Amino acid sequence: MTVTRRDLLKTSLFGGALAAIPSAAQAAGEPSSALAPVVDTAGGKLRGVNVRGVMTYRGIPYGASTAGANRFMPPRKPEPWTGVRDAFQNGHSSPQNAPAPASIGTGLRGYAAAGEDCLVLNVFTPGVTGKRPVMMWIHGGGYAYGSGGSLGYDGANLARHGDVVTVCINHRLNIVSHLYLGTAGEAFADSGNVGLLDIVAALQWVKDNIAQFGGDANNVTIFGQSGGGGKVSTLLAMPAAKGLFHKAIIESGSTLKQMTRDDADQQTTKLMSSLGLKATDAAALQAMPIQKLLAAMGNMRLGPVVDGHSLPRDPFDPTAPDVSADVPLIIGTTETEGSYFAPPDLLSLDEAAVRARLKDRLPGESDRIYDLFKKNRPKATPSELYFTISAFPTSAHLQAERKAAQRRAPAFLYQIRWRTPVEGGRRLSPHCIEIPFAMQNHWQLPEMVGTGAELQPLADKVSGAWIAFAKSGDPTHALIPKWPAYTADQRPVMHMNNEWRVANDPDREERLAMASFTRLPMF
Fold first, then answer.
1. Are 329 and 485 in contact, with CB atoms under 8 Å apart?
2. Interatomic CA distance for residues 210 and 125, integer angstroms
3. What is the dihedral of CA 323, 203, 106, 440, to 10 degrees?
4. Number of neighbouring beta carbons within 10 Å of residue 341
5. Is it true that the peptide bond before 318 is cis, omega within 30 degrees of 0?
6. Catalytic residues
7. Quick check: pTM over 0.90?
8. What residues form DSSP beta bridges with 132?
């Protein structure tokens, strides 16, 4: 049976992604897609869509609804179904408050409806037979918002380009993911980390089912950016995730420490008091309407909790975690992360304004550090220096150094130095800029990366490195120089631009000057 583009869009089956895929056949009104083969999973049979050779299955449940009595609890398996389930559209994202609008990229265009039945994933595969590497994407948005179904994260082009199986997941976020309720009793011991346990459940689903989609459950790479990179960093320290993935990529999300149990307890006590509840009254929160709970959250700083249970230690402090010592890593950043978020006035600061802003961020050291960066970058504008300083990759260097010290598996460090041409180039090398290239979705996001001829070669280099790493544990491939693993003596970093080059201990003076500042704000 064939399905036309018009059929899919009329019935809202395909979550909008097909609308962005141009082809001569679609323009002529010819059949553009066919139904993908039915696959038999542990939960039941699924029918997907074949879009230009990629078998696409959306909204697959890997866990039960997290509403009601399941709120704040570890994930539970979904109920199986009978017959054949249509896996044509994205599932719910986690309940969340709308973030501030992104300055470029429109938040990578995420439009998913939210709901507590949000433990769903999408699978993109070139074929349901074979044994391909699996790449599981974990979306960003801090620990507060986002969706794995956003257009910029769509995994079809990566699957097609790399002959890999791409999995994109949703999981719980913010207050339903990281509100620590351990004082309410042993049943809530994991409440501060249930969103991460959702990801573990998704990985378990992959282990149990991905062979039916042509994937190799013994070759799984997790990768994520920003908050997604923080989630990857933290999963590397979680015993429950051990053995469920075999390689990891951390993009602009190097995380050394997470929230202490005492800090989490204090936050919970304040929240419960504001609602007129006792600190132990978790049942009242489970019964509360989700919108009221989200409103009560306010500006709480929510994230994973070192609870001594599901997360027994900080992810990479003071050392790399033993539980994942044999997992190779790629770790990296962009050169001016905060220029992604910045309002226009921060993109044209003068030197006095930069020095004033840095005083709060680099107490006692701001003028010395500004002078050092200015000396080594004489052509940089004050705003460029500001974003370069505030994005200096201290945590990424420390994470790579601590991983390398284990001598069990390599870490490969990078920095994106390519500058987007949008807005006249004033956004420099912002947060998120590597995602369109890594996912081969650059042509879908011109407002983020432009439309130049340089885009496809850069995408082939970036996605090629990610794919090579997923296949072999080594990111080197034919289009880039040899990428050496990080060592404490050489400290090699791959600088990614239209041309790539390896630099040993680049910006050494700056690295030493910035060594004590590991948690700078982005802007």
1. no
2. 10
3. 90
4. 17
5. yes
6. 226, 337, 431
7. yes
8. 215
